[in-house]
Write a structure and sequence with these properties.
The complex is a heterodimer. Chain A has 11 helices and 8 strands. By secondary structure, chain A is of the alpha+beta class. Chain A has 3 domains: about 90 residues, Butyryl-Coa Dehydrogenase, subunit A, domain 1, CATH 1.10.540; about 110 residues, Butyryl-CoA Dehydrogenase, subunit A, domain 2 (Beta Barrel), CATH 2.40.110.10; about 140 residues, Up-down Bundle (Butyryl-CoA Dehydrogenase, subunit A, domain 3). In chain A, the strands form 2 sheets. Chain A has a 4-stranded mixed beta sheet. In chain A, strands 2-3-7-6 form a 4-stranded antiparallel beta sheet, with no helix packed on it. The radius of gyration of chain A is 22 Å and the shape is globular. Chain B has a domain of about 150 residues: Butyryl-CoA Dehydrogenase, subunit A, domain 3 (Up-down Bundle). A 4-stranded mixed beta sheet of chain B has the order 1-3-4-7, with helices on one face. A 3-stranded antiparallel beta sheet of chain B has the order 2-6-5, with no helix packed on it. Classes of the chains: A alpha+beta, B alpha+beta. Chains A and B meet through helix 7, helix 8, helix 9 and helix 11 of A and helix 7, strand 9, helix 8, helix 9 and helix 11 of B. Chain A: This is Acyl-CoA dehydrogenase. Chain A: GO terms for molecular function: flavin adenine dinucleotide binding; oxidoreductase activity, acting on the CH-CH group of donors.
C-alpha cells in the first residue's frame, strides 16, 4: 500500500478510477490519525482540527470545489469513491459546513469580492462555518422560518432563533436563511446571509441529545447588525439558492455503509449472546442481510447514473428511506437479543463493537435529519409516483 | 465491461423487450389470459410455437446448437415482459429443458423443443419447496406446470453417484393435474419403470445451474407482474374519488404507495445485479447467493405489492372481473416456484460470505 505514489492534488482528477481509489487508501493510511477511526460520536473542532489542517496542508480539503478556487475539482463519481474510502477507513466528519455547503454556494452565487474574502479562509481553517436553517417552528416546514433581517442603513438587523445548528459552539461564522419579506409567499421572502459569530447579540446554547452529546445548538440573534455586503445572491432568492445546492450529495444519505457497520456488529453480538446458530435468529439476520445487499445494488444503480454524467432525480429519496430504516431495524434487533445488556450505558465487556444502546440511540435521528422519512415519502409520492395534491 | 460493451448490451436487452412487447403487449388487455384460464392445458400451444419461432425457448442455448446464445440479462428482460402480460405459456420450463438437452450435446428432441413444436418438461422435483433434484428413479415427480400440454418429459435419474437424463414420451407416463390459482395446472407424473430413452449420464451440474437460472428468471417474471399491478394501482389512486377528493391525495395512501415503489426498486436492482453477476461468469457460492437474493426479494415483494394493490383498490379489487386480482393469483403460484423466500434466505446464509464492513 505504501508503494503507491500520491500525486499532487491537481493531478488527482485525471487518475483512472481504480488507481484513484488506491491513492485515497494510501493517503488515509499515511495521514489519518489511528485514534480517530470510527469515533462513536461527532467530533468537536478541538478533536478534529489536526485532521482538518492535514487535509488543508495537503490540498485535499475541498474535493468538490473547482481547482481555480483551491479544490480538487473531482467529478461526482470520484467524490463517491473518495467518500466510500473515507467511510471504509472510519474517517470522522470534520466541521465541514464551509467545505460542503457554504463554499459551493458562494462559488455559484457569490460576488467576486465574496469569493476572495471567504473561500481562502475555509481552505486555511480560519473560518469554521455552521448552518442556520431550522427554527423551533420551522423544521420539516423549513420555509415557515421567521428569523428576520431588516435593512437599517448599511446593515441588516437580525432577530430570531435558529435550532439544530450543528457544532455552532465550534464555529466562528454562520450562514443563515432569514426572512426579508413578510408579505411575499413564504418561499419568496427568504434571503441568504453570512454572519460573523463574534458579532454582539449572538448567543449559542448547546442542546444535549439522546446520545448525551452536545453536537447540536440553539443559536439566538438579538439585534445582530450584519453588513449588507454579507448578503449572498439576490434579495429574497435565498430559498431557491439553498434548494439548488441540494446536488448529488443527497446520495450519501443513502450510503449502505452505516447499515453494513451495524450488521457486522449484530453478528458479533449474536455470537456473544449465544443466539447466532438459532434458526429463528438466522432467518431474522438473513432478512436484514438481504435488505442490505439489495440496498447496495440499488445504491449502485444511482452511482452508475452519476458515472454516466446524469443528475439524480427525486427517486434518490428511496435510498435514504431504505438505508435509515434498515439501520434502525438492525439496531432494534441488537436490542432484542441483548437481554438486560440492552440497557447498559457503556459498551458490553468494554468492547466498542458491542455498543448496543449507543448504536440504537445513534440510529434514531437518521430517519429525522436530512428531510424526515415522512417528508421523503411525500417527495416520492408526489414527484416520482405523480400522485395528486 | 467497457462503456461500448455496456451500450451494446443495453441495446440487445432493449431489442428483446421490444420483440416481447410485440407478442405479448405489456399494456394490452388480458382477454387472452382470461380465455385460457382453468382449461387444460392452461396455455395456448400456438403461442408457445410463436415464442419458439422468436428464438425465446433457446435464448440461452448456444448458437451452435440452434439457440440464440444470449445472456441472463436478456432472458430476465424477456421474462419481465411476459410477466407484465401474464403470459401462461411454460417458457421458463421449456427453456430449462432446452438447456439440459444442450448440455447433453443437443440430443433428443432439442430442435423440436426450440421451435415450440414439442414441449418437454423436466420432471426433477420430488418434494415441495426445493431446488434439489435427487433423481430417485422410481419417485413420483411433482409440480410440473402445464403438464397437460407436454409432449414428453425429461427425467433426471440417479445412477451410481451421477445424475443421468432420460426422455419419455407423454404417452408413457401416468399424469394427474391439479388446477392452480392463476388458471394453470400443476402436474404429477409417475415415471415408467424403464425410465425411457437415456440421453446423458452426467447431467447433475448442468441441472443445478439451469435450476438456478430458472429461479432468477422466475423472479424477473414476478417483477414484471408486480410492476404492472402497481402501475394499475397508481392509475386508480389518481382517478378514484371518495369524500369529494381523489384518494391519491390522502397521505396514508401516498406513503403506502411510496413503500411499494421502494420494494419494486429493490427487486429490480437485485435481479439486475444477479443477472449481471451470472453473465460476468461468477461461479459456485457467489452465483447461488446472487440468485437466492433475487428470488427471495421477488417472492416477498410480489406478494406484498399485489395484495396491497387489492387493498388500495378496495372492493373493486376483490372482483374477478377487475384485472388486478390476476396478478395476485399469479404471484401466489410463482412466489414459491424454484424455491420460496424462506428457502432462498436459508440458502443465502449457507453460501454467502461475511458482510464486508
Amino acid at each position: 500500500m505504501d508503494a503507491i505514489r500520491i500525486p499532487p492534488p491537481a493531478e488527482l482528477d485525471g487518475l483512472e478510477d481504480e488507481h484513484f481509489r488506491q491513492v485515497v487508501r494510501a493517503f488515509l493510511h499515511a495521514n489519518y490519525p489511528e485514534a480517530l477511526r470510527n469515533p462513536p460520536k461527532r467530533l468537536h473542532w478541538a478533536e478534529n482540527k489536526a485532521w482538518y489542517m492535514t487535509l488543508a496542508e495537503k490540498g485535499w480539503l475541498c474535493p468538490g470545489w473547482p481547482k481555480e478556487y483551491g479544490g480538487l475539482g473531482l467529478s461526482p463519481s470520484k467524490q463517491i469513491i473518495l467518500t466510500e474510502e473515507y467511510e471504509r477507513h472510519g474517517v470522522a466528519r470534520t466541521n465541514d459546513h464551509g467545505i460542503v455547503m457554504l463554499g459551493p454556494l458562494v462559488i455559484k452565487y457569490g460576488t467576486e469580492a465574496q469569493k476572495q474574502r471567504f473561500l481562502p479562509k475555509i481552505l486555511t481553517g480560519e473560518h469554521i462555518w455552521c448552518q442556520g436553517y431550522s427554527e423551533p417552528n420551522a423544521g420539516s416546514d423549513l420555509a415557515a422560518l421567521r428569523t428576520e433581517a431588516v435593512l437599517d442603513g448599511d446593515h441588516y438587523v437580525v432577530n430570531g432563533q435558529k435550532i439544530w445548528t450543528t457544532l455552532a459552539m465550534d464555529a466562528n461564522w454562520i450562514f443563515l436563511l432569514v426572512r426579508t419579506d413578510k408579505t411575499a409567499k413564504k418561499q419568496e421572502g427568504i434571503s441568504f446571509l453570512l454572519v460573523d459569530m463574534n458579532t454582539p447579540g449572538i448567543t449559542v446554547r448547546p442542546i444535549i441529545n439522546l446520545e448525551m452529546h452536545d453536537e447540536f445548538c440553539e443559536t439566538f440573534f438579538d439585534n445582530v447588525r450584519v453588513p449588507k455586503e454579507n448578503l449572498v445572491g439576490q434579495l429574497n432568492k435565498g430559498w431557491d439558492m439553498a434548494k439548488a445546492l441540494l446536488g448529488f450529495e443527497r446520495i450519501f444519505l443513502g450510503s449502505p455503509r452505516q447499515s453494513g457497520y451495524a450488521l457486522s456488529r449484530l453478528k458479533i453480538l449474536a455470537e456473544r449472546m449465544g443466539v447466532w446458530e438459532e434458526a429463528g435468529f438466522q432467518d431474522q439476520y438473513a432478512r436484514l442481510r438481504l435488505e442490505f445487499e439489495d440496498l447496495k445494488a440499488l445504491y449502485g444503480t444511482f452511482v452508475d447514473r452519476l458515472k454516466r454524467g446524469q443528475s439524480l432525480g427525486p427517486d434518490v429519496s428511496m435510498l435514504k428511506i431504505i438505508q435509515t430504516e434498515l439501520f434502525q431495524k438492525i439496531t432494534d434487533t441488537m436490542l432484542e437479543i441483548a437481554g438486560e445488556n440492552a440497557g447498559l450505558l457503556e459498551p458490553l465487556d468494554g468492547n466498542r463493537d458491542l455498543n448496543i444502546g449507543g448504536l440504537y440511540i445513534q440510529a434514531r435521528p437518521a430517519t429525522i435529519y436530512g428531510g424526515s422519512n415522512e417528508i421523503q415519502r411525500n417527495i416520492l409520492s408526489k414527484n416520482v409516483l405523480e400522485l395528486p395534491g | 465491461m467497457s462503456a461500448a460493451e455496456a451500450d451494446d448490451r443495453a441495446e440487445s436487452i432493449r431489442m428483446i423487450r421490444d420483440s416481447a412487447a410485440a407478442v405479448v403487449p405489456p399494456d394490452g388487455d388480458l382477454k387472452r389470459i382470461r380465455a385460457l384460464r382453468f382449461q387444460e392445458p392452461g396455455f395456448d400451444p400456438a403461442m408457445l410455437r410463436q415464442m419458439g419461432e422468436m428464438g425465446w425457448i433457446g435464448l440461452r442455448v448456444p448458437e451452435a446448437l440452434g439457440g440464440a446464445g444470449l445472456g441472463l440479462g436478456e432472458m430476465c428482460a424477456l421474462a419481465e415482459e411476459l410477466g407484465r402480460g401474464l403470459a401462461p405459456e411454460p417458457l421458463i420450463q421449456a427453456a430449462l429443458s432446452a438447456q439440459l438437452l444442450a448440455a447433453a450435446g443437443g440430443k433428443g428432441a432439442l430442435a423440436k423443443l426450440l421451435s415450440g413444436e414439442a414441449l418437454l418438461l423436466t420432471a426433477w422435483q420430488e418434494r415441495a419447496d426445493t431446488l434439489e433434484a435427487p433423481g430417485t428413479p422410481e419417485a413420483t415427480r411433482l409440480f410440473l406446470p402445464m403438464a397437460g400440454g407436454a409432449t414428453g418429459f425429461l427425467l433426471p435419474a440417479r445412477i451410481g453417484d451421477r445424475l443421468a437424463l432420460h426422455e419419455v414420451p407423454a404417452s408413457a407416463v401416468r399424469l394427474e393435474t391439479a388446477p392452480t390459482q392463476d388458471g394453470g395446472f400443476l402436474g404429477t407424473i409417475t415415471p415408467p419403470r424403464d425410465l425411457g430413452t437415456p440421453l446423458a449420464t452426467d447431467i447433475g451440474p448442468a441441472l443445478t445451474e439451469a435450476l438456478d437460472e430458472a429461479a432468477l428468471v422466475t423472479a424477473a417474471y414476478l417483477l414484471g407482474g408486480m410492476e404492472r399491478a402497481f402501475a394499475m394501482t397508481l392509475d386508480y389512486l389518481r382517478t378514484r374519488q371518495q369524500f369529494g377528493r381523489i384518494i391519491g391525495t390522502f397521505q396514508a395512501l401516498q406513503h403506502r404507495a411510496a413503500d411499494l415503489k421502494m420494494q419494486v426498486a429493490l427487486t429490480r436492482a437485485s435481479i439486475e445485479a444477479a443477472a449481471a453477476a451470472l453473465d460476468a461468469g461468477v461461479r459456485g457460492d457467489a452465483r447461488r447467493a446472487a440468485v437466492s437474493r433475487a428470488k427471495a426479494r421477488a417472492a416477498e415483494a410480489s406478494l406484498l405489492v399485489t395484495r396491497q394493490s387489492i387493498q388500495l383498490h378496495g372492493g373493486i379489487g376483490y372482483t374477478d372481473d377487475y384485472d388486478v386480482g390476476l396478478f395476485l393469483r399469479k404471484a401466489m403460484v410463482l412466489a414459491n416456484q424454484f424455491g420460496s423466500a424462506a428457502l432462498h434466505r436459508r440458502r443465502f446464509m449457507a453460501v454467502s460470505p461475511e458482510v464486508e464492513a
